[in-house]
Amino acid sequence: CGSTGAVLLIYNPFSGQLTTISISSSETTTPGASTSAPSVCSNSFKDRIVRASGNYQTELGGAALCIGCGNGGNCKFSTSASGTVELVFEPSSKQLSFRPLATICGNGQCELGETCPSDYGKCPICGDSICQTNESCVDDSQFHATPGVEEKRWQTPKPNMNGYQSSFQDYHTLVGYADIIYIDTDRLAADVCLQTKHRQSNSIILTYFFDGVAQAKKYKHYTSAYTGILSAVITGSDRSTLELPEIDFIWNAKLIFNRSGDYRNGQKEAIAEMFGWPHKDVKEKCEFLGKAGYLGVKLFPVHEQLMSIQPFENAMNLWYFIYQPVSYNLDGRMGTREELHDLIQICRSYGARVYIDAVLNHFTGVGNDFNQHRNPNSGCVKWGNKTSSTPIERKVPSNEFPAAASGPEDFHCDRPNSAWTNLFILKQWMATKHISPEDLSAIMKKVQIKMGGKLPDDFFVWLEVLTGGEAQYIWTGPSWYGTKFTNILKQDLILDSEVDKIKMWDGLYPKELFHNPTVPCHRVVIQNDDHDQQNPVHRNFEIRLFTNPNGVTDNNNDWPIRFILSSYYHTYGDLGLPDGKSSCDLCAVMCETCRKSVPYIKAHEPMACAYVGNGYTRIHRDIPVINAMRAWMKLTPISGASLDIGHCT
Q1: How would you list the strands of the sheet with 524-527, edge to edge?
Q2: EC number(s) in its UniProt entry (predicted)?
Q3: CB neighbours of residue 279 within 10 Å
Q4: DSSP state, 125?
Q5: Which of these, 14, 113, 251, 443, has the minimum number of CB atoms within 10 Å of its CB?
Q6: Do 238 and 264 belong together in one domain?
Q7: What is the pLDDT of residue 514?
Q8: SS3 52
Q9: Residue 283 domain-assigned?
Q10: What are phi and psi of 616, to 5 degrees?
Q11: Please, are residues 71 and 82 in contact by the beta-carbon 8 Å criterion?
């Protein structure tokens, strides 16, 4: 693809080349600052290597597709050889050639010329030692979903059908999402692309509405002159309609209030974690966090999540249900997207940034949906349905995740974790440590591209790679998240300053240090407590977190990001949250088994001290901890009275 504009792709399976021909200028539009006319998409893949495997289906060009097939769908291409290949684009000749990747034994990938027993022989003819595509053997090596799963899609009830709700829209036939691609590193202009999937894409014509204005193209260009909240609707010639969540732009965010201190443009300081705190309560803490000197606040998953009307483990809506995504819509258990937007703007006005715990590797298990399910051990008795955290007018059935435009074919095959020593399973089926280094780097590269080609100066991400009994497997060999991961990041992100923003979370600090010995300290974040491992002893350990943390050699520069956890006491057990949604009063099915009810307790109390009460903990309000943190940040001490906690001891 050229630097800009639409192109025609011509693939020659015999020569293995994909050539491009520019479409005449009459078929494109001229880019400009106007927000009323479609623009030419920017080409974010210029001079880049695109990784693909076999008949892999991908989108070539910027995420705002100038290149598309059919009704905006993906363009299929294939190679004449089996195994993983690199597609190399030559901008001068406008050719995309392919070459086999080097064979790496033990990486669980089927590569051209493979001779490694642990990698080959996993294809249509099981055990034949021939590396082939379209794997369908159900054994320990199966990666993709079982063939035919796409036929199980489009199960959302239609209007006038039993179980239909207006929030389901026309998900039975049309799904999609908005994609924003910022044009340059100043992020003052962006292309908005409405990516869709229609059940009958070959015969339906779609129309795209941006703020109510119809157009045939699915993308539109905006600049910082647009300060509104963008609405997007897609309609089909079959009268199907899809209304997407409102779209906001980064230039509409309030500027971070400037404060003195060794913040290093957002790359050093302490962050207060608010586990189980509703958005409305966190918003009330923004001013305090800014005055105390915190870099910002971490929220736990903010996307739409699983919720239940029946008990599980004798409790209602367990805390880890927030880690069971239903969509990426920002209507989570802790609050709506409007409340989240308000929280972010308020906190930024006081100098406090907002970070979130993002769940990207999985969605909730199949069956956690709106449908009734028959209990196979109880004849005609049916299990009650489950729901989600989003307001009723926005709910969607969650068995295919239509609000995320995801269906069965978008996931790996379903399997349990049969062995914690199995690298193939560890890398693919659970948390950050279960996403391969190659995939993690590819995700970060996509973020970089969508942010205009450079991550924001104050951006960083910390990856949860738990280092328990399986540490020897995930920190060595082909699954190495140390040197191997760093080298892949350098290949994709290019600049060391960009790689430095991709940090690792040391989950075993302070007890067992250096399970990730090859990751430099400035790319590791630490904390004493996390929501999985809460310790009742806090103050002295939290003070030491800033004055002399275990294993430190350069306290000014080692571990520049450190976390303080404010959570809740396990007064009513360790399963529910005190946000009112773990109360047995909400139960509707099998309520006799609900024995661990957790009542509503307000998280924000203006006069509350750090450790007082039996509801929420507020370690971020402990003045000795605050002043230890401020000294580390080269800030002067602050009095409790100036933070309205002078009465706390």
Answers
A1: 353-356, 296-299, 269-274, 561-566, 524-527, 502-505, 461-464
A2: 3.2.1.1
A3: 24
A4: S
A5: 14
A6: no
A7: 59
A8: strand
A9: yes
A10: -85, 145
A11: no
Ranges of residues in the chain whose predicted pLDDT is under 70? 1-149, 151-152, 365-399, 412-430, 432-434, 466-480, 506-508, 511-517, 531-537
Q: How many domains does the chain have?
A: 4
Q: Which of 109, 87, 89 is nearest to 100 (CA)?
A: 87
The two structure tokens encoding residue 196: 């869709």
pLDDT attached to residue 141: 54
Range of the domain at 398: 145-252+389-415
The CA angle 480-414-373, to the nearest 5 degrees, is 145
Residue-wise pLDDT for 506-519, tens only, equals: 666 776 665 566 78
Dist CA 437 CA 108 (whole Å): 13
**pLDDT (0 to 100) of residue 402:** 87
Question: What DSSP string describes 266-320?
Answer: GTSEEEEEETT--HHHHHTTHHHHHHHT-SEEEEP--S-BEEESS-BTTBSS-GG
Residue 400's pLDDT is what?
A: 78
pLDDT score of 286 = 97
Shared domain for 330 and 444, answered yes or no, is no
- DSSP code for 400: S
Residues facing 18 on adjacent strands: 11, 96
Beta-carbon count within 10 A of 599 CB: 14
Residues 72 and 171 placed together within one structural domain of the fold: no
What are 105's two structure tokens? 């034994």
530 shares a domain with 642: yes
Q: Where are the beta strands (DSSP E) in 144-290?
A: 174-182, 189-198, 206-210, 213-215, 219-223, 232-236, 241-243, 269-274
Residue 65's nearest CA partner among 38, 98, 92 is 38
**Which pLDDT does position 543 carry in this prediction?**
94
Rounded CA-CA distance 149/154 in Å is: 11
Alpha carbons 182 and 534: distance in angstroms, whole number: 40
| Structural contact between residues 35 and 71, judged by C-beta atoms closer than 8 angstroms | no
C-alpha span between 329 and 337 (Å, rounded): 8
Q: What is the pLDDT of residues 144-162, one digit of tens each?
A: 666 666 766 888 889 988 8
- Say how many C-beta atoms besides its own lie within 10 A of residue 515's C-beta: 20
Cα–Cα distance, 139 to 121 (Å, whole number): 11
Q: What local confidence, expressed as pLDDT, does residue 30 receive? A: 28
DSSP string over 131-152: --SS----STT--BPPTTGGGG
Pairing of strands 213-215, 206-210: antiparallel
Helix (H, G, I), strand (E, B) or coil at 433: helix
